[in-house]
Amino acid sequence: MLLLLCGVLSVVTISGCVSTDGKSAFGLYANKTASQSPVQDETDPDIVHPVAEIAETLDNIIVETPQSELPKAIKPTNDLWQYIAQNLDTLAIDKQQIQSQIDWYAKHPNYMKRISQRAKFFLYYIVQELEANNMPLELALLPIVESSFDPFAYSHGSAAGMWQFIPGTGKRFGMQQTWWYDGRRDIIASTQGAIDYLQYLHKFFDGNWEHALAAYNSGEGRVRNAIRKNKRSGKATDFWSLKLPKETQGYVPKLMALVVLLKEAETYQMVWPHIPNQPMIDVVEIDGQVDLAKAAELAGLSVNELHALNPGFNRWATDPKGPHRLVLPIDRTEQFTREFAALSESDKVQWVRHKVQPGESLGVLAQKYATTVHVIKDINDLKSNVIIAGKHLLVPQSLTSLENYGLSEEQRTARLQNRKKADVNIKHVIQSGDTLWDLAQQYKVSTREIASWNGLSPKDYLKPGQTLVIWYEADKPVGIQRKVTYTVRRGDSLAQIGQKFNVKIAQIKQWNNLFGQKYLQPGQKLTLIVDVTRTGTI
Question: For the whole model, what pTM was predicted?
Fold first, then answer.
């Protein structure tokens, strides 16, 4: 690995630098272009799945539904896909218009297998909520089109979660987004938000579901304008007659194709893997923040299994300000509730009594303990960001190594950054004022490539101290030079330093006016001009 040299070389290490996607106000991502993402949706190249094994993680959870939890009125079939198929009658479908989408799905049976693995825990809940709101069951298939039923999926247009909400629309429809938690990925919050949004769009378009679905993809303003334009021209205003973005023109047909393939599975020889027509999850209320490792232990799950069911949590614990709930397999609820009630507050989250050292700041402590400045201030009743050396502060700390929280935002980003995209990478530490555009110009790559390599949207704000990875081919060095200051260590020689940083002894002497000086002194500062793309691992 290479580290971008843009600070002071210390005795021990190198100090790094401190550091229209086409959406409407309500609409989800639109006008996407293909990205170079490491893991992409087979039907949408702009959707990224940073947790490639999420289906397998969910598949490892075995649920035995207690008889007391089964629906009072047993439904006609014990297979949930079949139940949905028997209740699909809302959309006006023209098979000729969607034949290419039908053909694609029919030729990719493994895709539907993976969909079923991801959906099996959540589909019954979604169907239940749609029925409770008198909504078409066709909408239960929408997460397939949006995200391949992956709650960790995101697009480079800033959409995230199973229902693919952008930040603004997510907040509009009740999805909190904090350092600890992102409701767009929360199954409960995002499903309710999607239902609310779709109901709003259905009403906005006077009960026309095809128009509402098109607007879910590209925004109601764009669809409304297309309808008005056709009316002025005396043209028909059905979905097929509207001039809409290419992506939206394919978006609604994808959903319609799934409806046809589910209703006529035998005709198309389409296999929809069995999903039980019974509840698989339960929502358990808790009374405050809890470490996910402790919650997983109480529920008899691994941390990753618990996190896969609760993908809204970004970190090692739930958000201290809520929502205070967990999604659990329905057969673990009783055990968890009983054992959680017996926990003391100190058992739910581990606390450290930290003695402030000279030079430490709240930001340093927040980074060290994987928490936020706000949380530390709130716990310790601090009125400002000033802390005094020698004083003690209470700080929350994870029960186990952060690496064990494999589905946390940090670990998902780390896996994404470590997926090899070229021969060599440079790690760039963001300094104040950096933008993706600036970095793209500096490294001679595109903003979309940087975003793809690091799990970002091209419009994301870059935070000082954040580390981004930049990939390039070894035979095409980008020739990035940086002036750095190196602190001489005991035993260093000009030859060793030159070899380490791939520079010549004569150059070091010239840069530092060392002609006539025979020996280097420990602690002596040397100026080096380094091509970071040709420097070895540091």
Answer: 0.74
